[in-house]
Amino acid sequence: MTTRHKGLKWLRASLLGLALYCSLGALALRAEDPKPDPSGAATGVAADVPGFVVAAPAELSADDAKDKDKAKAYADAKKAADDYTKQAALEPLAVKLADNVGHNRVAINFMWTLVTGFLVMFMQAGFALVETGLCRAKNSSHTMAMNFMVYPMGMLGFYLCGFAFMFGGLGAIGTLGGYAGLNNELGVTIGGHFFGLLGWKGFLLKGAGYDTAAFSLFLFQMVFMDTTATIPTGAAAERWKFSAFMVYGCFIGTVMYPLFGNWVWGGGWLSQLGVNFGLGHGHLDFAGSSVVHMQGGVIALIFAWLIGPRHGKYNKEGKLVHPITPHSIPMVMLGTFILAFGWFGFNPGSTLAGTDFRIAVVAVNTMIAGSTAALATTLYVWWFKTKKPDPSMMCNGMLAGLVAITAPCAFVSVGGAAVIGVVAGILVVEAVFFFDKIRIDDAVGAIAVHGVNGCWGCLSIGLFADGTYGDGFNGVAGNVAGLFYGGGLSQFWAELIGVTTCFVTVSILSIIVYYIVEKTVGNRVSVEVEIEGLDVPEMGVPGYAGMVMDKQSETPMAR
Predict the structure, then answer these.
(1) Residue 230: which domain range?
(2) What mean pLDDT is predicted for residues 472-480?
(3) Angle ∠(80,81,86) on CA atoms, nearest 5
């Protein structure tokens, strides 16, 4: 590439960046004026104590007033509310005590949400170790740096507008004090049904976003977004330009993660499939099998496909001629245990409530699925594939089980969790071999772990949800029940629509961004840089100082 050509690429990239930041600046100017300091001192009142406060019912419409049953129900509710008001006036101490109890209840939920968010943040260390260990030593500095920088780059986009896009129309956050300031959801009404498409409040955490409840939700969801953004760094490792990665990291936090996340968790149209069309409780994803993991897996699939396999792995006929081995299995296994530990923040934390006793079920299901998946993978590879208990596959098996249980963890029994884990453990092996066969070179197995098993995790809700939890989820009465527990196929169809939407939407966005970056800074390093290793050419420093590299085997020889 000539100097002039390089200069033009960087000029286009600079103009692209300038346009992006001008757009984000316009959104920032649109942000609401700040409120007073949100200390949270007034958060949590008697209404937050279940069953204590009897709220006045909404006024009946003229048509409803003509309905005898509705009119009677309204009269009964109004009488109960009036009786509560009179009793509260006679016993103010009881109301004051209930206010304190309500405040403490919400405070516990706040602390739970924040601490589990801290655990999820620590998972980034696990991802960094797993991905770096599975790569070659000559790319260790580059791979580790991508896992490091995905945190600030993704957070920048999520802070500027991603959070507002995702949760700007969420409505009341019940477990965090009932805060309802994020109440502007953009969408369309078709056939009398509202389809939410994008939130539009809380930009820069100002205005409606400047609140303790919103702050807690922001922290918890930011580290979730970080997980989505870090998944592609493993699949496209050892040939991805660092400058291209930086663009992707910001885009995922700004647009991609918030868009699909809004449809599922922010009050968008997928969450309303139950209310609008009677499809179960709408698309359910308790902690992120589709919103977090499948999204990341689909991005990884598109990137690995478009950027092409690593140099020398396949011959011209597409046959595998050079299996590329990890440089540090101990690093991979340590990272896997860090991730498994962090998952106890990921899944139980998604209750957003330390006062929700379902967290015990969620935690045990998480543990069971991860363990059964690891065991299933180990035995399957050992007996049917390589005749050896491959350590890297063990780790990917455990991660696959954890990914799969992330969506159904609150809705299934322990037995169901075990089955989900076993299926995930086998799926990840077959998926790794399948993608290798069709020449999609995934350096760490991210597509199989996160993409395939994120999809499986959501679909499993429609099969294994046991009908003991979920009353009122997405505005639908009754607990969530899957096909094997008498719920029919209704919930399964909602899950299928959700994962199909995820695949199509994320694929299209990924392809668009790939070609924009390709026309500006370019996505892939040169063959010469790839053979040498990305550490020194891209980062200016090797991962292992003083290490002599064998260019033929591309593994460290000696110091």
Answers:
(1) 102-539
(2) 94
(3) 100
Q: Are 174 and 65 members of one domain?
A: no
pLDDT at 393 over 60: yes
Q: Within this chain, do residues 397 and 377 fall inside the same structural domain, yes or no?
A: yes
Q: Are residues 117 and 201 in the same domain?
A: yes
Inside any domain, residue 559: no
Better pLDDT: 179 or 205: 205
pLDDT of residue 363: 98
Task: Transcribe 75-112 into DSSP letters.
Answer: HHHHHHHHHHHHHHHH-HHHHHHHHHHHHHHHHHHHHH
Query: Which H helix or E strand runs over 63?
Result: helix 62-65
Residue 69 and residue 170 share a domain: no
Name the strand (E) or helix (H) holding 471.
none
215, 74: one domain: no
Rounded-to-integer distance, Cα 425 and Cα 269, Å: 32
How far is C-alpha 60 from the chain's CA centre? 41
Q: Give the number of domains in the chain.
A: 2
Which parts of 191-328 fold into alpha helices (H)? Answer: 212-235, 242-251, 257-265, 273-277, 295-307
Residue 240 pairs in a beta bridge with 524
Do 55 and 130 belong to one domain? no
State how far the Cα of 217 lies from the Cα of 441, in Å rounded to an integer: 36
Mean pLDDT across the stretch 13-40? 59
* Residue showing tokens 């309303």: 272
Instruction: Report pLDDT for 54.
Output: 56
Which phi and psi (to 5°) does residue 468 adopt? -110, 0
Band of the pLDDT at 45, cuts 50, 70, 90?
Answer: low
Task: State the CATH number of the domain containing residue 432.
Answer: 1.10.3430.10
Structure tokens at 353: 């409530």
Per mean pLDDT, which range of 8-12, 184-188, 200-204, 328-332 is the poorest?
8-12
pLDDT digits (tens, 9 = 90+) for 47-106: 566 555 556 667 777 777 777 777 787 788 788 777 767 766 777 777 677 777 777 888
Instruction: Tell me, yes or no, whether 117 lies in a domain.
Output: yes
Same domain membership, residue 57 and residue 176: no
3-class state of residue 183 by DSSP: coil
Q: Are residues 445 and 458 in the same domain?
A: yes
